[in-house]
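Readers of this paper often ask what the protein records in our data store actually look like. Such a record has a labelled line for the sequence and another for the backbone structure tokens. Nothing more is needed to write down the fold, since each code stands for a local backbone conformation. The record that follows is passed on verbatim for readers who wish to inspect the format.
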Amino acid sequence: MWYVSTRGLAPRIDFEGALFSGYAPDGGLYMPEKLPQLSSETLRQWSVLSYPSLVTELCALFIGPELIPRNDLSDLMHQAFCRFRCREVVHLSRLRSGLNVLELWHGVTHAFKDLSLCCTAQFLQYFLEKREKHITVVVGTSGDTGSAAIASVQGAKNIDIIVLLPKGHCTKVQELQMTTVLSENVHVFAVEGNSDELDEPIKAVFADMVFVKKHNLMSLNSINWSRLLVQMAHYFFAYFRCVPSLDLHPLPVVEVVVPTGAAGNLAAGCIAQKMGLPIRLAAAVNCNDIIHRSVQRGDFSLSEAVTPTLASAMDIQVPYNMERIFWLLSGCDSQVTRTLMEQFERTQSVSLPKELQSKLSAVMTSVSVSDEAITQTMARCWEENQYLLCPHSAVAVSYHYQQMHRQTPSLPRCCLAPASAAKFPEAVLAAGLTPETLPEILALERKETRCTPMWRSDNWTLMLRDRIEDIGRRWPDHFQDASE
């Protein structure tokens, strides 16, 4: 399996190359050169598989046995999912009013990012050990990405991780999940600024290509292809649990509601759809609605500013994985994609070509949900089911409740739930409900913490470079490129 850039001007690379890459050299994102097509018979065979087995089957299609032999791949997946609290890894809750909620939050940090990051970390360690190399991962976070990335690599001998968190701008639980990890390879900075501001020193460091190559730096945000690869399994699992019958021809369609911000999970759903999975997507966003505007009227343009909401992980202005969706729906046309994205980078505003917008609205619908609707949805779901939703899950469930009030018959529907409500007690209280207190989250408050403050008066870029150089001094071979 080869991977190409969505902008068409970079050499193709294999899975290992894509794993260790962020953006392609031409500014695009890596995508499979050709998508495998799954027959109805294959889907029927996969329908009885567990979630980890589905991930293994998908990874086997996109990695290839010459890079990771099948037995090794199975072992890596076992290691990835062995710390999940739920035996199924993900769990479908069937609630009143035809509401199906797929809980993606049974990992170490109670968020869906555990699913993809634990696998990505296994892939990284596998190749690093074979090549006898070391990398330093640098992550800026507003909450869940940082804690999930730390949990996935803590204690790894070939990986150090540096996380910058915005002090006072993520929940107390999210902060403690990062600062209470005392492993030698984990380095946390608490920045006196917001998540946009803390991105600046990271961008400055990654702009120095000589420094990046010398210290084998990489990021683990949702542009990394391996994260999308694992997230595809959500859609297959949701489909197999919610489809009324696999004996019909053609196979019935299931609607999957995706609460989304940067559109990584949404892009994974589009790829699964293109491979032959009979799903209809519903993109559910908060009032930061660039994806909703793109679907409804082709308006891919920035708002004046990010609006803070209760669904804070989705408070995103630039959904960079939409580039993958545009490429996919334009028939893998890299020239169309490059022209679109370069215009967006110049002007921060693009009107999608009519044909592309038509294709986008054909594969998905969309909804934008206010904070008021989020709290109303959380309250209703509790009243009807005694089931607590996190605010991001409530964005998806709000769409389900809206559709219920329409007279036309609807498809079987599954709402993806990206996080446990226990991580967002402030939002639960805002909905007039009582937060749940999980023992492992309560225990965080009694643990020792460790982080380095970055005050406004400090030189953040210099502090970050200094820490990276300190790590590099422990690794005599750090001058060699990890992906070579």
